Amino acid sequence: MRISVEEVFETVSMTVDHHFDIRTVTLGINLKDCMDRNIDKLISRIKAKITDKAKVLNKYADATEEKYGIPITNRRIAVTPASILLEPLGQKRATAVRLARALDKAARDSKIDFLGGFGAMVQKGMTRTDEILIDSIPRALSSTKRVCAFINLASTQAGINMNAVEKVGRIIKDLAGRTANGIGCARLAVFANVPEDNPFMAGAHHGIGEPDFSLNIGISGPGVVRDVVLHNPNCDLTQLSEVIKRTVFKITRAGELIGREIAELMKIDFGIVDISLASTTQKHDSVAEIIEAMGVEKMGLPGTTAAVALLMDAVKKGGAMASGNVGGLSGTFIPVSEDSGMIRAVKAGTLNLQKLEALTSVCSVGLDMFAVPGDTPADVLSGIIADELSIGVINNKTTGVRVIPVPGKKAGDVVSFGGLLGTAPVMKVPKKGCAKLIARKGRIPSPITSLRN
Amino acid sequence: MARKKQQQICIVTVTGADRVGIIARLANAMAEANINILDVNQNIMEKYFVMTMAVDITKSTSDIKQIRKKLDKISKEMGLTITIQDENIFKVMHRV
């Protein structure tokens, strides 16, 4: 059956009018085979491997973009967690920083805007090298532009590593102080249950269970979903869920087609499609505006959590029908600074940190890109992180935190980070929290639900 | 390369204010680039011109990037919105 005129225009209007794009094509690269006891040898092998593959990635991503007329906004690279690469190299912070700079240069030389994987898995405990890597993050990120760091601090199987949570609170403060407006913190995400194939930054890395290469796709379509919700103002919520499901089916299929084609051209494995709705600062390309189109007066007001739960469930059902390879985070992102509707809601006072945290318990993947006053104590940051990660651990899902303490700013100020990172109103947080709880350290044991065998 | 040169069909869409010579102009551009037109669907909706055209670009002397450039030129000159996309994107999105 030929495609009808209506179907053709539905697809065309998604890209032309509603900002449908492939948000990221992320190439995962295994670097374990580059390891050496000599840092120079490691760096030269890494450089060769990354630049070689990135060139091909850019070439085929460009060609596929032309063929299908759907923009591919970002081309990115995720690598084996750097803590593993550093294990044989002696325990010096300077070595870790040198590795970060080498990764940064490889990304720059390959015209890749972000490279993820400068991180560690420490949910149960830290090796000496893991500690060195985490300690190196303030220097590593403040002296690079494209490297992104992740730390997995907790998992449902292991519980929450509070020694590392305590340390990370201080690391985030240190990093914020070294970069203008604390922007370096936008490249550091901490997680519970981090997925190994997440294509989105800052948390992307190429997990140890992955093949040599894998190509992962992040689609994006808040503008498209908002449009169908707006066009169905009178249907009941069951029908609304169906409408969203059908739309997400379509955009996921487009993502899978493009991902498979690029992977085939590169002769590597296709990985996953991440169906997360990722907003941008562009007008109407906003998750908050979907919630408002559903009938909540302003993002954050009562009804928001139920609306987000319905939205994300429909997204997952549509996405799972469209592709057998849904993976990564596949939740909804509600980054404060990157979503114009979220920014408005925070400014209007309807959305606060407590409500954001509640939203992450139903479906979203965490507290993302929110700014707090620069004088927020490290133990308060650690407390916010521990709270958020415990939601992930207990509910057996991924949660993450990307917080930016902005030096010299106080609650109510507005900070502009530029580009895709957007603008953030500085949110109000208590000046004291849980210093004694955090100082206890240790590990919050894994929940009883982890005993499933 | 695993992928041999197979038939490549693209869908061209045109929208804008109706005027004389839109189809003629497009057909001309297609012929110049050795592109075969397979199917045309055209309608006037509330004085707007709406058209989809299925074209076979397998034997074309231009690749899709160059064709899009030519279409962009026409769209500027005639005040239209013109898109071109590989047919497969519509198939995967609208057929289970």
Describe this structure in words.
The complex is a heterodimer of chains A (453) and B (96). Chain A has helices at 5-16, 39-68, 82-86, 93-109, 128-142, 162-178, 222-230, 237-266, 287-294, 304-322, 340-348, 353-362, 378-394, 435-440; strands at 21-29, 72-79, 115-121, 147-155, 159-161, 188-192, 213-220, 269-274, 366-373, 399-406, 414-416, 423-425, 443-444. The mean pLDDT of chain A is 94. In chain A, the strands form 2 sheets. In chain A, strands 1, 2, 3, 4, 5, 6, 7, 8, 9, 10 and 13 form an 11-stranded mixed beta sheet that branches. Chain A has a two-stranded antiparallel ribbon with strand order 11-12. Chain A contains 14 helices and 13 strands. With 453 residues, chain A is an alpha/beta fold. In chain A, 58% of the residues are buried. In chain A, a hairpin with a 6-residue loop joins strand 11 and strand 12 (423-425). Chain B has a single domain (9-94), classed as Alpha-Beta Plaits, CATH 3.30.70. Chain B has helices spanning 22-32, 64-78, 87-94; strands spanning 9-17, 36-45, 48-56, 80-86. In chain B, a hairpin with a 2-residue loop joins strand 2 and strand 3. Chain B is globular and about 35 Å long. The model of chain B has no long low-confidence stretch (mean pLDDT 89). Chain A binds chain B through residues 1-3, 5, 7-12, 16, 66-70, 250-251, 253-254, 256-257, 264-265, 267, and chain B through 1-3, 11, 13, 15, 39, 41, 43, 50, 52, 54, 63-65, 68, 81, 83-95.
The best one-word shape of chain B is globular
Query: CATH class of chain B, anyone?
Result: Alpha Beta
Under the CATH scheme, the architecture of the largest domain in chain A is Alpha-Beta Barrel
Radius of gyration of chain A, Cα only, in angstroms? 21 Å
> Largest sheet of chain A at a glance?
11 strands, mixed
Q: In the CATH hierarchy, what is the class of the largest domain in chain A?
A: Alpha Beta
**Measured distance between first and last alpha carbons of chain A:** 49 Å
The secondary-structure element order of chain A is HEHEHHEHEEHEEHHEHHHHEHEEEHE
CATH fold category name of the largest domain in chain A: Anaerobic Ribonucleotide-triphosphate Reductase Large Chain
Count of the separate structural domains of chain A: 2
| Residue share in helix of chain A | 40-55%
The helix/strand series of chain B, from N terminus to C terminus, equals: EHEEHEH
CATH topology of chain B: Alpha-Beta Plaits
Our Rg estimate of chain B from Cα atoms comes to 14 Å
Mean pLDDT of chain A: 94
Structural class of chain B: alpha+beta
Give me the side-by-side strand order of the main sheet of chain B.
2-3-1-4
